[in-house]
Amino acid sequence: MSLKHILSLLDLNKSDMDRLFALAAEFKSRSQKGIIDHHLSGKVLGLIFDKPSTRTRISFEAAMMQLGGSTVFLNKNDLQLTRHEPIRDTARVISRYIHVLAIRTFSQKMLEEFALNASIPIINALTDSYHPCQILSDILTIIEHRQTYEHLNIVWLGDGNNVAHSWINASAILGFNLVLCCPQGFSPDTEILNNARQLGGRITESSEPYEAVKSADVIYTDVWVSMGQKEQESQKTLFQPYQINKQLLAHAPKDAMVMHCLPAHRGEEITDEVLEGNQSVVWDQAENKLHLHKALLVELLLNRNSI
After folding, report:
1. Contact partners, residue 198, CB within 8 Å, separation at least 6
2. Could you tell me the strand order of the sheet in which 44-49 lies?
3. FRET label pair with 256: which of 97, 181, 189, 274, CA 20 to 30 Å apart?
4. Over the stretch 262-282, which tens digit does the pLDDT of each residue have?
5. What's the domain range around 161?
């Protein structure tokens, strides 16, 4: 992987992803053995976050520090961007100070303008359009539990949001089967969906949750209302049939994995019983963000396939 940006999963190919999964698994194994790695000593990761974050921010910061590097956290309100400094100027200046920049913001276009003018790698740490790093760590988790992602049936339940968009892109690149089960009016972006299908993504849509999960290897959900969006009065009623609960899981294979990118609104999109149940792998998902981010930073900064 040469110097490049990760603005969406379409910036990667299958070989890129497979290298990241293998390297992340290697980092996790070394961490469990107490092996300390300082591959990024002297390197600096910058973080510009417009939105709140627990897992993404902490895992990026911990990953960089555990690899011997350092981090600079920047709230957008602390930057001259709030005084109308052009993004292109900010991107050029920051590129002189640090080695890689992760941005968590609203606008995908803002992220793309940063990347267009930066001379360092830019990483999408979440926009309203995509959440690529989340899906990479999710697929790492699937590989851990199922040894492969190939030929699996991934079922998305709920709002067709930024995380769903990144699952759509992942399906186009890796070739697993993706079922999108969303309430009427909350389907993923049509352009993103059509583009993924043109690239070969095996993606189907359903409006019947019990039917959608019948052959599921993975059942995935997210909050019903994404950050920055206002909840509509009728939304909870509309989404209720898409809740992952005991009754829904009774229609799925007994070994189907339940995933949630967190934070979870327990009792809304997923019940407490299921989140804490034997089929849930959400805590592995959360941990694997750390290991995947290590792999991503090393690949972007050192172009290394192994450690």
Report:
1. none
2. 70-75, 44-49, 100-104, 122-124
3. 189
4. 999 999 999 999 999 999 999
5. 134-281
Which residues share a beta bridge with 122?
Answer: 101
Residue 238's Cβ-count burial label (10 Å; 0-12, 13-18, 19+) is middle
Query: What CATH number is associated with residue 226?
Result: 3.40.50.1370
pLDDT tens per residue, range 221-251: 999 987 555 666 578 899 999 999 999 999 9
- The 3-class SS string of the chain reads CCCCCECCHHHCCHHHHHHHHHHHHHHHHHHHCCCCCCCCCCCEEEEEECCCCCHHHHHHHHHHHHCCCEEEEEEHHHCHHHHCCCHHHHHHHHHCCCCEEEEECCCHHHHHHHHHHCCCCEEECCCCCCCHHHHHHHHHHHHHHHCCCCCCEEEEECCCCHHHHHHHHHHHHHCCEEEEECCCCCCCCHHHHHHHHHCCCEEEEECCHHHHCCCCCEEEECCCCCCCCCCCCCHHHHHHHHCECHHHHCCCCCCCEEEECCCCCECCCECHHHHCCCCECHHHHHHHHHHHHHHHHHHHHHCCCCC
Q: Indicate whether 153 and 31 sit together in one domain.
A: no
Q: Is there a domain that residue 1 lies in?
A: no
CB distance 302 to 39 below 8 Å: yes
Residue pair 105/111 in contact (Cβ under 8 Å)? The answer is: yes
